[in-house]
Amino acid sequence: MEVIIQPTPEEASRLAARLIAGIIGAKPDAVLGLATGRTPVMLYAELVRLHQREGLDFSRVTTFNLDEYVGLSPDHPASYHAFMHEHFFRHINIDPGRIHIPDGMASDIPSFCATYEEDIRAEGGIDVQILGIGTDGHVGFNEPSSSLASRTRIKTLTARTRSDNAPDFGGADKVPHHVITAGIGTIMDSRMCILLAFGENKADAINRSVEGPVTAMMPASVLQMHPVAKAFLDGTAASKLSRANYYKWVYDHKPEWQRF
What we know:
Layout: E1 2-6, H1 9-26, E2 31-34, H2 41-54, E3 62-65, E4 67-69, H3 80-87, E5 99-100, H4 109-122, E6 128-131, E7 153-156, H5 159-164, E8 178-181, H6 184-188, E9 192-197, H7 203-211, E10 229-234, H8 244-252
Parallel strand pairs: 1-10, 2-3, 2-6, 3-5, 6-9, 9-10
Antiparallel strand pairs: 4-8, 7-8
Helix pairs in contact: 1-2
């Protein structure tokens, strides 16, 4: 895993956005895997800026979101449909027909999940998967103990995750218990993974995911096995990494052709 440490979340998000913009520039019909939550908001804002100010073209891009709450309609203000349109889709020139978000209202969830996997394969797979990380190391909604080979499916949220997401619902008791989420195996099929993590509360999960053993109890640790995984961190999220100085040295001494 390549670890890229920047002084602030804003700078880390800008770098990640530049990398994604370069991929879209080289492959205008790129397939993006998208995450939600507070962490990627600055990344989406920078991609919007690149579209509006520098002409980054999303007209041929296809997107697949990682997850959605079961039982939430797309127009619910806490749904990830609403989140993505508020923070990203309505600000860019993406074709609505190329947007894919799990259907929390699906009447047959197993069938929907199987179709979602088929749709990803039909588009040729995901070129870049954007990821956040939970304080317990989950990616998507793959909670600790999730199979490292899992595919898109229904998951039950832990009390910790429901508490972390409580501000979006006005209280933990209002957070749904279940979600549809892309599996860890689905994530690992992506050609590149971009992990974003900011703040001191993510430092322990980052330390264990980057420098600890690969284990289902720390789902993000599986990214150590991905051939092209990049972690974009601010200084506080990186504060418990024993080799932080080395990661900074590596980034500062990249050959020019590797920079973005």
